[in-house]
């Protein structure tokens, strides 16, 4: 699991830094830049009353306690909603409609399954007993339910392990086929280890590809934010110029 965590942390490090920088920029813009610009515009004779983001920035800068309370309430609400099992299932179900995301999630589930299963099987633990141990040690209810269903199919329904895996619509598409090719051989333990390594490499490459897509998305978001800030400052400036030109004419 340490390798899995290191791979995830390595690929999420840059997006996390970009998100932090965006948050810092937003705080700077709403609490320092925009309020100061609003006050500068307000010093001109005949200037309009600040509106939109300028008015919001003035309010937030004058009431930091309210802004902090709203932020904490928002974060608390997000955490509460995300902690709901039904919400997580809904999000995962929606994401799996995207083929590339579905493939990544399937590979991730296969890899995390093999990390524990292969270590148990190669230690001499039978497959059904390994699933029982994984069920007992599962930290998530959905994982325990999955392992229980797999163990039931293996012991009560007398299915082959590849058939049990094929019935679970969460693993990589070729996982069941690979198992079917080696489950009746004497090299099952070795092949399970090879699977773990192979899916680990596939997951790392898929995660790196996903990370490469995040960078352009962050650039687009940053550009959109810059354009929005520019328009926010351009509107009162244009109003002042129009009034000055009107008086001159």
UniProtKB/TrEMBL annotation:
Gene3D superfamilies, per database record: Type II secretion system (T2SS), domain F
Superkingdom of the source species: Bacteria
Predominant subcellular localization, coarse grouping: membrane
Membrane topology: Multi-pass membrane protein
All copies of domain Type II secretion system protein GspF, residue ranges: 113-234
Keyword NAD (UniProt): no
Recorded family membership: Belongs to the GSP F family.
Protein name: Type II secretion system protein
Native source species: Leptospirillum ferrodiazotrophum
Lineage, top ranks: Bacteria, Pseudomonadati, Nitrospirota, Nitrospiria, Nitrospirales
